[in-house]
Amino acid sequence: MNAPPIIQTRSLAKTYLIGDVRVAALEDVTLAFGEGRFVAITGASGSGKSTLLNLLGGLDTPTAGTIEVDGALISTLDRDALARYRRFGAGMIFQSFNLIPSRTALENVELPLIFANVDKRERKRRAAELLAKVGLAHRAGHRPAELSGGEQQRVAVARALANGPRLLLADEPTGNLDSRTAREIVGLLAELNRGRRLTVIMVSHEESLVREFAHDVVRLRDGRVVAAESRA
Amino acid sequence: MKFAAGVEFALASLRKRRLRTFLTASGVMIGIGALVSMISFGQGMQKNVTAAFKASDLFNTIVVMPGGGLIPFDDPDRGPRPEEKAGRADAVLDDAAVAGIARIPGVRMAYPDISFPAQVGLEGEEELRLVRVIPAAVLASNAAQVRWGKAFASDDEEGVVVSRTLLRRLGAADPAAAVGKTLRITSVSIDFSRLASLDLAALFSGRGLPVDREGYDFPIVGVLEVGAFGGGPGLAQNDILIPPGTSGRIKRLPFSSLWDLLRMRDGRLGYSAVSVKLGSLRDLEAVRSRVREMGFTTFALADQFEEITKAFYVMDMVLAAVGMIAIVVAALGIVNTMVMSILERFREIGVMKAVGAGDGDIRKIFFFESGALGLIGGAAGCALGWATSLIINRVINFILARQGMPPIDYFAFPLWIFVGAVAFSLLVSLVSGIYPARRAARVDPVVALRHD
Asked: Does a structural domain hold residue A194?
């Protein structure tokens, strides 16, 4: 870890109230990731991986502790500022792709640009460019249902990058894909990571992919960091 | 999010759920349609009645009545207006008084209101009617429309003008053919030859009154058209008009009502009322005060018109309130549709938030969508209200045409009704969208993304 950290968490904790019972999803997570790294977060289901990713992506707010991204304190932002952070600061992709079914691939990629108030023509141009970058220029007019799983995830990647974030957060991006496609997608993330100095944080429990592509690996168990290793 | 993008979002979403959009917008359409026809009906009535009043020349008319006790043609329970008490009991409306009134500056014409009951007959059919004595100049200047034949040209012309209604009652269906026919007017007068041998005992039991009936024949020179609402108040309401010179030929009692006798002072009867036509409504106050100085009581319709306008305002309110019921139902329909839409698009809201939509963006999307429902429904409602009114108008006119009424527009559509209806519909739909939009904006993206 030679680059300065782009993400720094300190004593991060998240508890949920289920009925009257407090359930700790994350406890005392202190981590730092350097810019341009490919980070994998692994752990069994229920270990708090997705909770951590949602906090880093600004979808959720921590119960305690702080998150700093690029020097800015994310954990104390109000709802509007958090929305701006999701719009410009961090792109996210998900296991179930989360494309909007009624919109074409191109229109899905346009979505973050709409919320960023980009004009229509510029929006179309940038969305087409991003689709071309993930190798889907020829599928721009298709709706998600007409695309394969791998293609859908590529559209999701293009959408996550629409407003040029420095951070890409992937929540089990290969969970719904066959192993060959899974490797292609993680390969695409790795390529983006190399080419753009984009920091990628991927939640995954596919050890082989993690070993092949990740620079840093964080292991969680029961909401706590049990191991953090850094390679290369 | 930009405005145009918000509109695109809204339209795309409405297109996707066509049936629901159609049903919800139909609710708005029916509500707005009802409101538009109700208000246009109120406007139409107001326009027609106002036009009838204006055309009747009654606005420029002051009715002068003798001083003293008033004939209670009004509601007797209502206290008298201040001006009604102004008359002097000894002021008699005789020819000298009429001439005096006619000399007041601003008065165009003053003539006594004379009418008497008579039996009128045409080719064997008979009716009891009031015969109205009217100077030729008044008939010429007045809006009472002589549609067939012509008005009598002088106060001594041998001829009468009758209404189309009367002709129909007398069995003459074709008014044009009735011109030139002879109308028989039978009047009642005191039979002086029988006064000498009066049988008092029989008289008090109602028999043997010393009265006589006599018939007079006049050619019909003109026929009045029936106006809307019976022609409004004024001359057009009379069935038989006769010039004053000619009417002198008819022997009749010098009064038409016992009220006239009760009002009599020193044996002087005078007229029961005199119509005063003004050159301009601006002279109303001046003329009225001069007439009051002479000891007479006055009545001007112009004063009443304000109250008539108020009555129409109330009518509009009532009609609008009925229309509002439909609008409230439509608004609830919008709220229901939009809340359903949140549940259906719960995950989509989560996705939009995950890719950077703020609370405001989500609010806008839902707000625009309900606004679009209001706009579409409102525009369609205007068309529906307009079309419905046209149909109702046709049906009413069809029915009334068989009773001989000329066709008129019962509905009026000033532009503001349409503009107002669409604007109101938009407003209602936006208000309906407030709760769903706020609720959608509060959706927690983490929960929404977990949702299937």
From this structure: yes
Is A168 inside any structural domain?
yes
Nearest-angstrom CA–CA distance, B300 and B288: 9
Q: What ipTM describes this predicted complex? A: 0.93
Residue A141 CA, distance from chain mean position: 25
CATH number, residue A90: 3.40.50.300
Burial class (CB in 10 A: 0-12, 13-18, 19+), B133: buried
Q: How far apart are CA B167 and CA B160, in angstroms?
A: 13
Expressed as residue numbers, the domain containing B323 is: 3-54+308-450
List Cα–Cα distances, B403 to B120, B226, B235, B348, B398, in angstroms: 22, 11, 21, 64, 9
Contact B358 A160 (CB under 8 A): no
Q: Which of residues 293-352 of B touch A (CB under 8 A)?
A: 347-348, 350-352
Has residue A11 been placed in a domain? no
pLDDT tens sequence for chain A (232 residues):
456 789 999 999 999 888 888 888 999 999 999 888 999 999 988 888 999 999 999 999 999 999 999 888 998 899 999 999 999 999 999 999 999 999 999 999 999 999 999 999 999 999 999 999 999 999 999 999 999 999 999 999 999 999 999 999 999 999 889 999 999 999 999 999 987 679 999 999 888 999 999 999 999 999 999 988 887 6
Q: Are A199 and A168 within 8 A, CB to CB?
A: yes
Q: State the helix-helix crossing angle for A179-196 and A149-160, rounded to 10 degrees.
A: 20
Judge whether A128 lies within some domain. yes
* Domains: count for chain B: 2
Quick one: closest CA in A to B2, which residue?
Answer: A117
| Among A115, A120, A159, beta carbon nearest to B357 | A115
User: Same domain for B123 and B184?
Assistant: yes
